[in-house]
Specification:
The complex is a heterodimer. Chain A is of the alpha/beta class. Chain A is about 45% helix and about 10% strand. In chain A, helix 2 crosses helix 3 and helix 3 crosses helix 10. The chains are: A alpha/beta, B mainly alpha.
Chain lengths: ~375, ~220
């Protein structure tokens, strides 16, 4: 695949029909909440786009993000778009190893300085640079060096976007997110553990079409995919509204597919596209499989007070505190009451009776 | 402190602290009142003090006709917002989960549409009583800072709960944290203000009713 080949040429070479390509463009437009009139513009831009150079850095991560994207079943257009970008550096996917691999990264940076897209998965350890290194280079140094020449940075997955599991308490490596390090480049957060494949292809398509970043929410996530909560788009939402809940994983409610809120579902506080785009080629998403949402696309989801604890319930032992409080209050109340009584009795005891003669004496 | 940490603190130590102040304060104040005691009534009983006391607890809940005619607005809005608060507090599913966790008791929830509507009606009623309090010269004259404070800490959980349910403005964890914090504020203020009427009203009604009942008259 030559670097000068356009995306359209690359796709045709791989047997994608014009119809399939336009379907992808239409789907992308609708997912990005763009008007249908934008479809030809997207198609034209993508058709002519040179394959952008992409450098993918993997830091403190589990490779789940890469797995998610590469397992988007080979014949999908998303997969081919992914093939059609010039992925110049990616530990897991590239053939080169050792110094040859690093040379590829440096060459890509030099060749496309200021234009390449940097994708990062994994968090960056700050407690000790030795916790995670690549070819002897610390994650922090590599990120700072590579981000300098990037057009934009995509934080792939919750670790890169928010620190994720490495940052979970007690955060032994001092893990931080990409946004904590890179301050002078546009950053798109694509959180999720892992994120949905179509979200990254959508972001790439947007970048290729318009040369700009998609509209982001307060947490730096593309609004087109993270604009609505799981709860609001959940097919089990009617059961929540009716007050019908599964109390355990195997009770009648669970079998009938009722709401999983009581089992700790984080759908109401989680923004992601799972409930709409779904996983495994639209087969389903965790709630459809009978498991509550873990809230993996939100910051600090690992420390949210327990995956199986409903959001409205206390995280401390309130019952014990309540019993102690009533006990102590009763004791204090009795003591204060006794003091009040003693004061009254004393006042009664000290009361001196006065008769008319005593009063006349004073004159 | 991140939003998640704030929510954890609000659901954990803050809730424990508020619960302790709430219950400790209530226990102290109730026992202090009860221990004041009453002088022995040396007169011969003409009726049952207990029956009179219990009857009055119920009967004082309903205004007499003349009173109702004069203060219909206060009566109606008062009933509405009190019922509204209890319905939203006790029959919204996430609240029931909280009670289940703390008390070990559970009961069926009402549909969220019902809770939603009740919340709006309650907020309107609470706004109406404030307007009435300020617009009416007598109630305005009688009102102290505490009356407005008590009103504020009562409406805040309703407002923040409504906003948190519809997720407007801030992030959902932040909205829930603010809602729980507003309830904790209510709990902390409760024992030291007129909000104590939730408990003392039964005591004072019983007291008055018992005196009358002992004398064999209606109160």
């Amino acid at each position: 695949m030559s670097k000068d080949e356009t995306l359209g040429e690359a796709l045709r070479r791989q047997g994608i029909t014009r119809r399939g390509f336009l379907k992808f463009c239409a789907a992308t437009a609708s997912m990005m909440a763009l008007p249908p009139s934008m479809v030809p513009a997207i198609a034209a831009a993508l058709e002519k786009a040179r394959r952008p150079s992409v450098i993918w850095l993997s830091f403190q991560e589990c490779t789940g993000c890469t797995e998610s994207l590469t397992r988007s079943h080979s014949p999908t257009v998303e997969g081919l778009i992914f093939d059609a970008i010039s992925l110049d550096y990616h530990h897991t996917l590239q053939a080169a190893a050792g110094s040859a691999a690093e040379a590829a990264r440096e060459a890509a940076m030099e060749e496309n300085y200021g234009k390449y897209l940097l994708i990062v998965d994994g968090s960056i350890p700050l407690a000790n640079p030795g916790y995670s290194t690549i070819a002897g280079i610390s994650n922090l140094a590599m990120l700072e060096e590579t981000a300098k020449g990037a057009a934009a940075v995509v934080s792939m997955g919750s670790c890169a976007a928010f620190g994720g599991i490495p940052k979970a308490r007690p955060n032994p490596t001092g893990a931080v997110s990409v946004g904590d390090i890179v301050k002078d480049k546009p950053i798109i957060n694509v959180p999720g553990c892992p994120p949905i494949p179509v979200v990254i292809t959508g972001v790439l398509a947007h970048f290729l079409t318009f040369g700009t970043l998609p509209e982001l929410d307060a947490l730096g996530r593309p609004k087109a995919y993270y604009g609505q909560s799981i709860h609001d788009r959940c097919y089990r939402r009617p059961f929540y509204d009716k007050g019908k809940f599964a109390n355990t994983f195997d009770d009648e409610g669970a079998k009938k597919g009722w709401c999983l809120y009581k089992l700790g579902c984080k759908g109401p506080t989680t923004y992601n596209a799972c409930a709409t785009t779904k996983w495994n080629e639209g087969t389903g998403f965790p709630i459809e499989a009978g498991h509550p949402c873990l809230g993996c696309s939100e910051p600090d989801f690992w420390d949210g007070g327990g995956f199986y604890k409903a959001i409205s319930t206390p995280t401390g032992d309130v019952s014990k505190a309540a019993v102690y409080a009533i006990g102590a209050g009763a004791a204090a109340g009795l003591a204060l009451g006794a003091m009040n009584r003693a004061r009254r009795d004393k006042a009664v005891g000290e009361h001196e009776k006065v008769n008319i003669d005593d009063l006349e004496k004073g004159d | 402190m991140s939003e998640t940490e704030l929510l954890l603190w609000v659901r954990g130590p803050a809730l424990q602290g508020a619960t302790i102040i709430f219950l400790l304060g209530i226990a102290v104040r109730i026992l202090e009142i009860l221990m004041l005691g009453r002088k022995t009534d040396l007169a011969e009983a003409r009726g049952s003090a207990v029956a009179g006391g219990l009857r009055t607890i119920i009967s004082r809940s309903f205004a007499q006709r003349e009173t109702l005619q004069r203060t219909a607005f206060t009566e109606v809005t008062g009933w509405i917002f009190h019922i509204g608060i209890f319905v939203t507090l006790l029959f919204f599913a996430p609240h029931i989960l909280l009670f289940e966790e703390v008390l070990g008791l559970s009961w069926p929830a009402l549909p969220t549409t019902v809770i939603d509507a009740t919340t709006i009606v309650t907020i309107i009623a609470l706004l109406a009583v404030l307007v009435h309090r300020i617009a009416n010269r007598v109630t305005r004259f009688l009102s102290r800072f505490q009356d407005y404070l008590v009103w504020l800490v009562t409406i805040l959980p309703m407002l923040t709960g409504y906003i948190a349910f519809h997720r407007v403005g801030l992030s959902p964890p932040m909205l829930i944290a603010i809602h729980i914090l507003s309830v904790e504020l209510l709990m902390v203020v409760f024992p030291f203000t007129k909000l104590m009427h939730a408990f003392t009203l039964f005591m004072s009604r019983y007291y008055n009713g018992a005196i009358a009942g002992y004398r064999g008259v209606n109160s």
